[in-house]
Design a protein that fits this description.
The protein has 8 helices and 20 strands. With 358 residues, it is an alpha+beta fold. Among the domains are: 46 residues, no CATH class; 71 residues, Beta Barrel (OB fold (Dihydrolipoamide Acetyltransferase, E2P)), CATH 2.40.50.140. The two termini are 35 Å apart. Bound molecules: adenosine-5'-triphosphate and magnesium ion. Adenosine-5'-triphosphate binds next to β2 and α1.
């Protein structure tokens, strides 16, 4: 649906987009994820036509968008600051983009009604827009974009002004909405959890470049660099040495884990370069309580810190043979004690959960 071909964007001397090459499929829920200032909004605006590019190409539906103005592109954008008109009613806001389309009153009312129903605001048409909550305003903004039946809906941090509960509710609704209308959604967010929850695929951006483009599970399980790993969720790192490589496997000596053979898929960033580390998620290690046995490997560890979250406890531990603390997350089970600082415990782990980074 969208293809970026070596897109470069300069603001004066500042190189804001550095060779973006990627494709976004029709009907996909796609997210641009990255820290503040990495170029997410800039890239989104190049699709909408609000921002020209310095070189390269942005294609939509096979057509080069060079010179095509925003209002002639099959896209529509929903902004972070809803940009709805407070003095108009909800229905007037939603129908705003159609006011010159020459529709009959009945047609207009029916299109507005459909759009409002889609975003869960059936019956809200006559309300004054200024009297809406943040979440309702965001729905109005969505309805106003959807009523124009774009092929691609561009969403720039549309939920960031909402509180946590409302945001989570709107996330689920956006997914439902996208499935219902079946068009391509491109979401900009700096919230990694939001991107993981909502997206079919995610492009992780740093400093004007795409660092990795993959589905949520691949990004989480097999990040291709320490930086991506660190940005998405929590990743533990321990120093490692590469002993040797043969065919599809890499032999490493990792602090706290000892000698291990990893397969090539566990080194998604390649194995060339200096200073290896192994990375692993907090939930891939398990603290073994009395009577439990490891299904795979087992090590000793000392508890250094305990953070109790109600449903979960985070344990910062040092594995025997390692001087770096790592985090283990454990789901709490009713009746099972929470361990204390200084306790010695056994820890189960699996070589398959490790990722090798350079
Ligand atoms: N019109 C402009 N003129 C000059 N520099 C700009 C302009 N627009 C954006 N930039 C710069 O380009 C970089 C990328 O900006 P952009 O708005 O795309 O970041 P972002 O990833 O959306 O960040 P945020 O998460 O904070 O919204 C930033 O360093 C920004 O200062
Ligand atoms: Mg932005």
């Amino acid at each position: 649906m969208i293809a970026f071909q070596d897109v470069q964007k300069y603001y004066g001397d500042y190189h804001a987009l550095r060779g973006i090459t990627a494709e976004i499929r029709a009907g996909e829920f796609f997210s641009l994820l990255g820290p503040s200032g990495c170029g997410k909004t800039t890239l989104l605006r190049t699709i909408a036509g609000f921002e020209g590019i310095s070189s390269g190409a942005v294609m939509i539906d096979g057509r080069n968008m060079a010179g095509v103005p925003a209002n002639q592109r099959p896209t529509n954008m929903v902004f972070q600051s809803y940009a709805i008109f407070p003095h108009l009613t909800v229905a007037e806001n939603v129908g705003f983009g159609l006011r010159k389309a020459g529709l009959s009153k009945a047609e207009m009312a029916s299109r507005v009604g459909d759009a409002l129903e889609m975003v869960g605001l059936k019956g809200f048409g006559d309300r004054e827009a200024h009297a809406l909550s943040g979440g309702q305003r965001q729905r109005v903004a969505l309805a106003r974009a959807l009523i124009l039946k774009p092929k691609v809906l561009l969403l720039d941090e549309p939920l960031s002004a909402l509180d946590k509960k409302m945001r989570e509710q709107m996330q689920v609704e956006l997914i439902r909405l996208q499935r219902q209308v079946g068009i391509t959604f491109i979401l900009v967010t700096h919230d990694q959890e939001e991107a993981l929850v909502m997206s079919d695929r995610i492009a992780v951006m740093f400093e004007g470049e795409i660092a990795q483009l993959a589905d949520p599970e691949t990004l989480y399980r097999r990040p291709n660099s320490r930086r991506v790993a660190d940005f998405i969720g929590t990743m533990n790192f321990l120093p490692a040495q590469i002993i040797g490589e043969s065919g599809d496997t890499v032999e490493v000596e990792a602090q706290g884990f000892g000698r291990l053979v990893l397969n090539a898929e566990q080194a998604p960033g390649g194995t060339s370069g200096e200073g290896a580390v192994v990375g692993f998620r907090p939930e891939t290690l398990t603290i073994l309580f009395e009577g439990q046995t490891a299904s795979d490997r087992e090590s000793m560890a000392v508890i250094e810190e305990v953070v109790y979250y109600g449903d979960m406890t985070y344990y910062d531990v040092k594995l025997a043979g390692s001087d770096a603390a790592i985090r283990i997350s454990m789901r709490n089970v009713f009746g099972r004690p929470v361990l204390e600082i200084g306790d010695e415990t056994r820890v189960a782990w699996s070589p398959g959960a490790l990722v090798l980074f350079r």
